[in-house]
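Quick start: read one record
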Amino acid sequence: MTEQEQPVAVTVVGTGTMGSALARALLAGGHEVTVWNRTAARAEPLREAGASVAAELVQGVRASAVTIMCVADQAAARELLADPQLLEALAERTLVQLTTGTASDGRSNAGAASGHGIPYLDGAIMAYPRTVGTDAAVFLYAGDRGTFTACEGLLRRLGTARYVGEDAGRPAVLDAALIAFFYGTLAGLLHGAILTDAEGIELEEFFELARPFFATFVTEAVLETGERILAADYSDAQSSMKTHLGGIDLLVVGSSREAGIDHGIMSAIRDSFVGAVDAGHGDDDIAVLLEVARAARAPD
């Protein structure tokens, strides 16, 4: 949004921790903000910050050109959007759905919105509430390109706004993929801490080693793995699948078993390595696991 553009009036539906952060970022950006929450008391702190608090949801939606919904879950969102009066109020007003859901939720919501004449964007929030309103908060949006362009200035008040295409399921897929990477990384970090602790080694020493290990070894592995997958080149591996299998089986799972700690997650990773080696990829780079997964889901 340029300095010459008039700030758009926005209604935020849902004032939990994230919804409140969205509303505050919009207020800081100079927007006229109306908020509504099923439990009205949870919206009151935003009145003190400068927002208008709507007593009724339909009233709140009619106050603005754009409505951003961020409620507890998709079931709650569907319940709200089942109200014919709300759908009527939303017609020709833009609805930005930031409630967490799956790809099918996004596509279903987009179809329903289109059927009621509601310009619609589906979004995914890749941020903690504390970073909302800064470039560190990344938001993925999908839907009609013109709708995104019309709202882009407003959406950039929330953080980095990235348009990922017309398919309303794409934000959820990309979000899920990145969150899987996040949880997998944290699971490995926590397993390492549990193993270290079980063997009586100071956790301070583990974390001192973990930080530079991630910054160099893991970061380089992410870059190389991505390059290999995009090039479909799994040859000339610095560390082959057979080597990786030996490492996780003998070192990680073996050490965990000796320490008497749960190794279910690590064993599951080992099993995927076994599958790749048994499929003839023992000499290939670990990135070949993507091809193994593709083959497993391919139709007979």
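The chain has two domains: 10-166, 199-297.
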